[in-house]
Write a sequence for this structure.
């Protein structure tokens, strides 16, 4: 499994299209996150997200890229 440290420098936070899997954070994953689950990793940089789930939806924040769009 590729780690964030191994990927450093490949995608600058906030630049370029989404390239990391939001389920596992890997660059080479085609998307393993179940459809209704909130993201666990930032799709831009692959960093772990601080995700909060509420009855109305979810919110997530990346330590590198900032807030991620919230879902409902």
């Amino acid at each position: 499994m590729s780690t964030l440290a191994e990927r450093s420098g490949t995608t600058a936070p906030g630049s370029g299209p989404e390239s990391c899997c939001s389920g596992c954070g890997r660059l080479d994953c085609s998307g393993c996150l179940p459809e209704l689950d909130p993201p666990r990793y930032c799709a831009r940089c692959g960093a772990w997200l601080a995700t909060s789930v509420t009855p109305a939806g979810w919110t997530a924040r990346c330590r590198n890229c900032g807030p991620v769009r919230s879902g409902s």
Q: What stands out?
A: The beta strands are 49-54, 57-62, 66-71. The chain is about 5% helix and 25% strand. Residues 1-72 form one domain. The chain has one domain: 1-72.
